[in-house]
Design brief:
The protein is mostly helical. The protein is about 80% helix and about 0% strand. It has a single domain, classed as MFS general substrate transporter like domains (Growth Hormone, Chain: A).
């Protein structure tokens, strides 16, 4: 094993994510409204697009994670994934139907899938195991700082150059990310894993890890993402040109809570911090149910949803190293992301269908109940793990 590079890698990968998220969020801050209003997609179609995109993302997380374990290398996969997404995203500028946008969104998410599991394994292997929460919190915060600047850049540029040219301009920060990755990130080699692909998966799927996967997959079966928050903001009176600002506020909350959530997870236990994130999602769903009539409420929903994302995204990634050995980290992250992706596809499609067919109350009653049940299940898993360690 090589000497661990420590927080040098964590910060460098955070800067890479900063520029990449700046690029991505220049697009995502306006994409849901662009799809619904210009390309005539329904809310159910929007859910389908996001679900299929994330499914592609998670399938490739498993493939790239397992191959990186097999080869004992992470950085080449990280670079390839960032390169693929950087080239794909500007193609939104040429979409004329929601099917075109679906293809581009899937291509972009394939790139994210290729890089994510090897990158998370690289972060976890760059520092000591007991500092995983802090490391992922730092990475998440830097990532989300880019997610703050991206929507603000879109808000500034749209009146000047139009939405489609903003899609093209998103390539510039993506190029900066590739340069930082090439020059500043250090490889952390691990021994090449012997045996076939399924052998690694079987080793990862041990009883305690399965319990964690079950709780998180149940949570995602009742989940939705930022796109529904932005659509709801439009319904509550936020003008189309101001939608990126709502997205920016969501990302401000996300960034602000990243490091504190990581430190809290290291202190009280990562499962407990993850449960806290689930309960924040419950609060967000309740606000979807109860609040209506004023754009001010859409700001409040965005802030709470952003806090949920910051806590959940940080702690869900930091909890994985507790369940698997170092040489199987890539495979473990890949399995985790695939299970989450399948659940998310079903979940966001279901929420979109319920909202279109039966109304907002039914859709977000469903998400509220699912989040409460999954939080209770994760608490039971955490109690079982704690007992086994005594």
């Amino acid at each position: 094993m090589e000497r661990k590079p420590g927080y040098r890698n964590v910060v460098a990968l955070g800067v890479v994510s900063f520029f990449t998220d700046m690029s991505t969020e220049m697009i995502l801050g306006v994409l849901p409204v662009f799809l619904v209003e210009e390309l005539r997609a329904t809310r159910a179609t929007l859910g389908l697009i996001e679900g299929l995109a994330e499914l592609s993302n998670y399938v490739f997380r498993l493939i790239s994670g397992a191959i990186s374990d097999k080869l004992g290398r992470r950085k080449p996969f990280v670079f390839l994934g960032y390169l693929f997404s950087s080239v794909a995203k500007p193609l939104f500028a040429f979409a004329t139907t929601w099917i075109d946008a679906l293809v581009v969104r899937v291509l972009d998410r394939v790139g994210k899938g290729v890089r994510t599991s090897p990158r998370d394994a690289l972060i976890s292997q760059s520092i000591r195991g007991e500092e995983a929460g802090r490391a992922f919190g730092i990475h998440r915060t830097l990532d989300q700082m880019g997610a703050i600047i991206g929507p603000l850049a879109a808000f500034t540029l749209i009146p000047i150059v139009g939405v489609r040219n903003v899609f093209i301009a998103s390539f510039l920060p993506a190029l900066a990310a590739l340069l930082v990755l090439s020059l500043a990130v250090v490889e952390v080699r691990v021994p090449r894993r012997e045996g076939g692909f399924m052998r690694g998966v079987r080793r990862v799927l041990r009883s305690r890890f399965i319990g964690l996967l079950l709780a998180l997959s149940l949570f995602n079966l009742g989940s939705y993402n930022f796109s529904f928050v932005l659509v709801r903001a439009g319904e509550m009176g936020v003008a189309a040109f101001a939608i990126p600002l709502i997205y920016m506020l969501m990302n401000v909350a996300h960034a602000a809570v990243g490091v504190p959530a990581g430190l809290l997870a290291d202190r009280i236990g990562r499962e407990k911090a993850l449960i806290l994130g689930m309960l924040m999602f419950t609060l967000s769903s309740l606000m979807f149910l109860i609040l209506s009539g004023s754009w001010v409420y859409s700001v409040l929903i965005a802030l709470i949803f952003g806090l949920f994302q910051g806590v959940y995204d940080t702690t869900s990634r930091a909890v994985i190293p507790q369940y698997v050995s170092e040489e199987l980290r890539g495979t473990a992250y890949g399995v985790y992301y695939l299970v989450v992706g399948l659940s998310f596809l079903l979940g966001i499609s279901t929420v979109g269908y319920l909202w279109d067919t039966y109304g907002r109350s039914v859709a977000f009653t469903y998400t509220t109940l699912m989040s409460v049940v999954s939080a209770a299940l994760l608490y039971a898993v955490q109690a079982s793990v704690y007992k086994s360690r005594q």
